[in-house]
Design goal:
alpha/beta; Oxidized Rhodanese, domain 1; 5 strands
C-alpha cells in the first residue's frame, strides 16, 4: 500500500510511485492516461488531471486506484509458484508477450507468442476459466496483457512477477539473460 497520503494536490509522479498500477486503473475506469489525448505529465497534480476529464470525486478515484493495486497484487504469480503450477496435472497456458527478437534470446518451454492468431484463438475457443500466465521481460507488459484478458472476462489469468528475468534469476540460472 501507499506510504504517502495522496490528495488532489499530489503529482501524478507521486500517485504512480505509490501505486505503480494507477495508470492502468485510471485508464480502465476513467479513460485517463492511455493515449496522447487523455495523457498527463508526471508533474501535473491529480486534481488538475481529473478536472480536465470531468471527474470530480478525488476520493472515489483514490479508492479505485488502491483497490486496483490490491487486485493486481493477486494477479501476480512468482517464478516459484509458476514452476509448481507447470508440474501440475493441469499446467497453465503460457503466453509470451515479448517482441520476437526477445523470444529469440530465451523463452519458457511451451510458451506461445502473443500474436494476432493466438489472440483470435483465445477469444474464439479458450474457456473463460483457462489458467493463463502471461510473461515478458520484467513483468510490466505481461501485467497489461493479463489485465486485458481479465477485462474480457477471463477469470484465471496471472502475470509472471518480474518476468522472464526473474525466472532466469530464481529458477533457471542457465537461461540467457538480457
Amino acid at each position: 500500500m501507499a506510504t504517502v497520503s495522496l490528495t488532489e494536490n499530489s503529482t501524478m509522479r507521486e500517485v504512480l510511485e505509490a501505486y505503480p498500477s494507477a495508470q492502468r486503473a485510471l485508464m480502465r475506469k476513467y479513460h485517463i492516461g492511455g493515449c496522447s489525448s487523455c495523457g498527463f505529465a508526471p508533474e501535473e497534480q491529480l486534481g488538475v488531471v481529473l478536472a480536465r476529464h470531468n471527474v470530480s470525486d478525488v476520493g472515489d478515484v483514490l479508492s479505485h486506484i488502491a483497490d486496483a493495486h490490491e487486485q493486481e497484487q493477486n494477479i501476480r504469480i512468482s517464478p516459484k509458484a509458476l514452476a509448481e503450477a507447470l508440474k501440475s496435472a493441469a499446467p497453465p497456458r503460457l503466453i509470451d508477450v515479448r517482441e520476437p527478437f526477445e523470444q529469440d534470446i530465451c523463452k519458457l518451454e511451451g510458451a506461445r507468442s502473443a500474436d494476432e492468431k493466438l489472440v483470435q484463438e483465445i477469444f474464439s475457443s479458450w474457456p473463460k476459466d483457462t489458467l493463463i500466465v502471461t510473461y515478458c521481460h520484467h513483468g510490466m507488459r505481461s501485467m497489461e496483457a493479463a489485465s486485458y484478458l481479465i477485462g474480457h472476462g477471463y477469470t484465471n489469468v496471472r502475470s509472471l512477477d518480474g518476468g522472464i528475468d526473474a525466472w532466469a534469476e530464481q529458477m533457471d540460472s542457465k537461461m540467457e539473460r538480457y
